[in-house]
Amino acid sequence: MAIVVDGKTLLTYSDYVHFPEDGKRHEIIGGLHHVTPSPVQKHQRISRWIQFQLFEQIEARGFGDVIDAPMDLVLSDTDVVQPDLMVVLKKNRLIVTPKNVRGAPDLVVEITSPSTEKRDLELKKNLYQSFGVEEYWVVLTEEDTVERYLLEEGAYRLVGRFRDSIEFSGMEGVKVDLTKVW
Q1: 0.85 cut: is pTM over it?
Q2: Does domain 38-180 have CATH number 2.120.10.30?
């Protein structure tokens, strides 16, 4: 049920579960409804290749879960998003429920499209930072690069932009070969 804060109506998770299953991605950020069209083929190919490599190195070896969209990430009652990919390491596995992920994953990956790039680089980056997501990758599909952010003292620091390979800081030795992605 929506709530009213400072005269503004904010949507909650109970509103979110009633959104239509229309092939679009519905999210609530700060109580506001955001909708994007379903992803294009390049986006899905990038997601698949990153997921495959993370799956082989993390999930297949029993170190955690690699979760792809659509899967709800419930950060608060008014912040419900569907990241393209999430990694939840074994030590944090209790946040993974049969219906959704409730709490900060160890890694979130968002793959941009023309309609989501600004949201991924600003709104979602700030959201993940404020809820303590330790590592955030933004895949810039038009540039075939990944920006890697690490949470340090409550704020994201841009570690770099990667085109050939990128390492996941949450687990030693986990590396994605980006030459297989592009």
Answers
A1: yes
A2: no
